[in-house]
Amino acid sequence: MTAKQLTVAQNLSGSAIGDSVMLAGRDDLQAIFPKLYIDAQVARQAEAGIPTIKSLSDRGLLGKNVIIGLGTNGNVTADTINEIMQIIGDKRQVFWINVHVPTQPWQNSVNMQLAAAEKQYRNLRIINWNEYISHHSGLLASDQTHPTQSGSSKYASFIAKNVLKPAQK
After folding, report:
1. pLDDT score for 114
2. Burial class (CB within 10 angstroms; exposed 0-12, middle 13-18, buried 19+) of 81
3. Considering the entire predicted model, what is its pTM?
4. Interval 119-130 mean pLDDT
5. Around Cβ 41, how many Cβ atoms within 10 Å?
6. Cα atoms in the Cβ-side hemisphere of radius 13 Å centred on 11
7. Other residues' Cβ atoms within 10 Å of the Cβ of residue 66
């Protein structure tokens, strides 16, 4: 990450809602984005993220940028994505990290739903973690899903580079 990107990241407001994969990278994400409100929990399903996102919105904590890391623990339906996007609204930029869970049958379905949603919402960008980590599997724990300690810093910097891309234009 360049010095310019890091400066932008230090001042970026927003929130991140995720599951255990995001939880593994939380400290590294927080170091890059100190103003980012991060809410990540083990075993969180995408549907379970809806009340969290609604609560953050109601409390004024969503910010301009919303990073979502949900889908590792089961299918994500179009209805769930639509509800999340409706709560967030069209005035915020949404970055949804796709999933890498090669041991689970829902991985491709989740990633296809997210790709379809990206075409539907102009303020949604998919961060292709699945493709990136497929070429760096040594950064994953034995479950082939969660980043190792060194992998979590790569996770955070990969997310940051993707979040900061629009800011560079």
Report:
1. 98
2. buried
3. 0.95
4. 97
5. 15
6. 6
7. 27
Q: Which residues pair with 37 in a beta bridge?
A: 15
CA 54/CA 132 separation, integer angstroms: 30
What is the separation, in whole angstroms, between the first and last Cα of the chain?
Answer: 16
Confidence at 4, pLDDT banded by 50, 70, 90: confident
Strand ranges inside the chain, DSSP E? 14-18, 36-40, 65-69, 93-97, 124-127
Query: What are the structure tokens assigned to 153, written together?
Result: 């810093």
* Cα–Cα distance measured from residue 106 to residue 147, given in angstroms and rounded to the nearest whole number: 19
Q: What is the C-alpha separation between 168 and 99, in angstroms, rounded?
A: 25
Q: Would you state the structure tokens that stand for residue 126, as one six-digit string?
A: 């998919």
Cα–Cα nearest to 94, from 125, 63, 73, 115: 125
Residue reference for tokens 């041991």: 103
Whether 139 and 145 have beta carbons less than 8 Å apart is answered as no
**How long, in residues, is the chain?**
169
Gap between the Cα atoms of 161 and 157, Å rounded: 6
CA 8 → CA 123, 125, 162, distances in Å? 19, 18, 13
Rounded to whole angstroms, the Cα distance separating 114 from 112 reads 5
